[in-house]
Amino acid sequence: MPSEATEAGMVRTYLDWLAALPWAEPEPRAIDITAARQVLDEDHYGLTKIKQRIIEFLAVRKLAPQGKAPILCFAGPPGVGKTSLGQSIARAMGRPFAHVSLGGVHDEAEIRGHRRTYIGAMPGNIIQAIRKARARDCVMMLDEIDKMGAGVQGDPSAAMLEVLDPEQNGAFRDNYLGVPFDLSRVVFITTANMLENIPGPLRDRMEIIELASYTENEKFEIARRYLVRRELEANGLLETQAGVADEALRHIIRDYTREAGVRSLQREIGRVLRHVAVRIADGSATQMQIATADLAAILGQPRFENDVAMRTALPGVATGLAWTPVGGDILFIEATSYPGKGGLILTGQLGDVMRESVQAALSLVKHRAAELGIDPKKLSEVDIHVHVPAGATPKDGPSAGVAMFTALVSLLTNRSVNSDTAMTGEISLRGLVLPVGGIKEKIIAAASAGITRVMLPARNRRDYEDIPAEVREKLQFVWLERVDEAIATALEPEAAPAASAG
Question: What is the pTM of this model?
Answer without folding.
Answer: 0.79
